[in-house]
């Protein structure tokens, strides 16, 4: 009896299961044009007209999304690690309206700009276009996709400046533009990100320059990485004992400010200031930072002076965290000479 009702249930559900397995025909058509825009590269060998597109390599569907009566909708597209995938991002990616995650990663022959058709992806949350050969500007039209939470454009050849409009995106968790050819300043509008939940801001290895807008002192960045650019002037307003900031990397820029005036966020885990023009002395308050998770500290190659304050944080690091300063002294550097 139990087994009979079981098989009855399966019979009843079978058409539903098949329907769920079938992919939406508009989505399938869009994927086929993506495949053909990439010259039917071997990567897309499983993308055949006789199979359900939800079973294709790198395609993810969600049978639960609304509008599935005509087959499951494509919610994820992943094209990863293949040098045979050549040419620009096909504009047909904009024809997958239920896409929440788009990832083109490690495609060394993926070239050209980000297509504007992407703005039609009104549910897109995760946009990862890292380690390709994409170029052109970071388009301001990305600000027209309010669902975006992660924008990762790292390791490409994007140039031009950072569009201020991105500060209008309400749900951002992370912006990673590292390892590109970006120029110009950080827009002052980036100070408008939510004070207690701004996105992680990763901008290392570009050619960004200018003074930081003072407005950047308002959001409590969890991670702010501006390393290896040409930023100048003050960055002291990024600090503050009451902030929830965990990672600050300002290394290899031309920042020039007085470190004596700074207080350190108590939950800081990593602070790298090496190779700048930072002056003053290391405040004793550094040793009030929670030591358990504090793992990286580097103030080398600056113009610091005075005694390194003794304590649980400063004792964790050796000479190379402090060397090449103007007149920094005391353990682990040679003792200060009274004069
Ligand atoms: C790339 O194309 C070459 C030549 O067609 C082929 O031998 C190779 O397996 C392809 N690589 C991948 C990752 O598909
Ligand atoms: C892809 O790029 C590599 C260099 O990364 C190059 O040697 C190769 O010829 C390119 N392949 C195609 C199919 O364009
Ligand atoms: C962006 O992608 C790179 C390369 O995969 C990765 O290392 C990095 O952590 C990503 N950044 C963010 C903010 O997730
Ligand atoms: C530091 O971390 C602790 C434990 O997670 C948390 O309770 C506290 O609010 C944090 N302090 C700040 C200033 O964010
Ligand atoms: C600090 O940075 C300098 C310069 O890049 C490097 O030589 C040194 O090893 C670093 N030390 C630590 C502890 O990170």
From TrEMBL:
One of its GO terms (cellular component) is membrane. Residues 1-20 form the signal peptide. It holds the Pfam family LRR_1. Residues 25-62 form the Leucine-rich repeat-containing N-terminal plant-type domain. It comes from the Eukaryota. Its main location: other. InterPro entries: Leu-rich_rpt (IPR001611), LRR_dom_sf (IPR032675), LRR_N_plant-typ (IPR013210), PGIP (IPR051848). Keywords: Leucine-rich repeat, Membrane, Repeat, Signal. The keyword Repeat applies. The keyword Nucleotidyltransferase does not apply. It is found in: Cell envelope; Membrane. Belongs to the polygalacturonase-inhibiting protein family. This is Leucine-rich repeat-containing N-terminal plant-type domain-containing protein. It comes from Dendrobium nobile (Orchid).
């Amino acid at each position: 009896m139990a087994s009979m009702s079981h098989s009855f249930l399966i019979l009843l559900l079978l058409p539903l299961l098949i329907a769920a397995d079938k992919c939406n025909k508009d989505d399938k058509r869009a994927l086929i044009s993506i495949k053909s825009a990439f010259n039917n590269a071997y990567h897309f060998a499983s993308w055949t007209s006789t199979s359900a597109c939800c079973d294709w390599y790198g395609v993810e569907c969600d049978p639960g999304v609304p509008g599935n009566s005509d087959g499951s909708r494509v919610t994820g597209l992943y094209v990863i690690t293949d040098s045979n995938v050549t040419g620009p991002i096909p504009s047909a990616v904009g024809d997958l309206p239920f896409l929440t995650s788009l990832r083109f990663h490690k495609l060394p022959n993926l070239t050209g700009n980000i297509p504007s058709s992407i703005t039609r992806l009104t549910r897109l949350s995760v946009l990862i276009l890292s380690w390709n050969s994409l170029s052109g500007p970071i388009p301001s039209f990305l600000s027209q996709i309010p669902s975006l939470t992660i924008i990762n454009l790292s390791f490409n050849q994007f140039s031009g400046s950072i569009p201020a409009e991105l500060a209008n995106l309400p749900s951002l968790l992370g912006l990673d533009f590292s390892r590109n050819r970006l120029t110009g300043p950080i827009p002052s509008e980036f100070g408008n990100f939510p004070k207690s939940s701004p996105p992680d801001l990763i901008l290392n290895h570009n050619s960004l320059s200018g003074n930081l807008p003072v407005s950047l002192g308002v959001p409590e960045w969890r991670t702010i990485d501006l390393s290896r650019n040409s930023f100048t002037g003050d960055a002291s307003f990024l600090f503050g004992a009451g902030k929830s900031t965990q990672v600050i990397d300002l290394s290899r820029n031309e920042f020039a400010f007085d470190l004596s005036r700074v207080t350190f966020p108590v939950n800081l885990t990593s602070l790298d200031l090496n190779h700048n023009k930072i002056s003053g002395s290391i405040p004793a308050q550094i040793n009030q930072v929670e030591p358990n998770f504090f793992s990286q500290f580097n103030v080398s190659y600056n113009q610091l002076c005075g005694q390194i304050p003794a304590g649980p944080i400063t004792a964790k690091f050796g000479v190379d965290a402090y060397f090449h300063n103007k007149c920094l002294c005391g353990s682990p550097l040679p003792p200060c000479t009274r004069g």
